[in-house]
Amino acid sequence: MExxxxxxxxxxxxxxxxxxxxxxxxxxxxxxxxxxxGSLVANVGYPTLILAHLAKEHVQLGTFLTVLAAAAGMVLVxxxxxxxxxKLLGVxxxxxxxSMMLSNVGNIGLPVATLAFGPEGTAVAIGFIVVVLxxxxxxxxxxxxxxxxxxxxxxQPVIYSVIIALVMMATGWRFPGPVDQSLEIMSGLAIPxxxxxxxxxxxxxxxxxxxxxxxxxxxxxxxxxxxALVLTHVLMLDSKIESIVVLMCFMPPSVATYLxxxxxxxxxxxxxxxxxxxxxxxxxxxxxxxxxxxxxx
Length: 297
Known about the structure:
Order of helices and strands: HHHHHHHHHHHHHH
Helix content: over 70%
């Protein structure tokens, strides 16, 4: 148990320190162009990360397609149970549903999975990122706004990098050495920038209705456990991949969902921000427990 606990500390502490640094930068009002850096991750970091890892067969094509199915299944479980929870509590569906079903598999899931499980963790996390990203630009916008933004989705380089990576995985084709090395270097942008941006975003969220946020956060953790149980019983995965899928299920709500809510459901935006913030803070407790007793690989 001491060995496992030490491993969990080594995984979580670097993530927490990077997020804390971003939080401190925001507190100190240090220059931090969230929009520019977010664009850099979306247009360079994510695509090069996908091409650098998937094309090197850290997971097989069949396994990656199963991971995509697992990610879609996770969103579906959160969507169904989240809808029931919000209805029973009398909470706004338009404001909270997208945050309830779309998890922060990028800012938190990717670095934790990478540190805990290495290249395989990165590859599996990428599958979840792709599915959740599609969800953010469709249902994540459609629920608060009333219609999806397919045009914005079509402009995302991540979609095309996944297609290229799938072709490479199926054909065995590889990038020339210099190109591969360039992708490896540029892919290093994604994780540190995402963690810093998360810290900045948490500081700038305007909190509200914290009692409701805490209740929803606890229920979100409960749904996470149900989603993990369902996926691990339905899908046939080896123990390591299964552990990474379990870990992905316990991610907090995506900060990206807050943007559409703040624009189209402004009266509920503070409450949603509180839900995201409290859920992210509780992740500091839930992830070490999950990594110690469940997602051990």
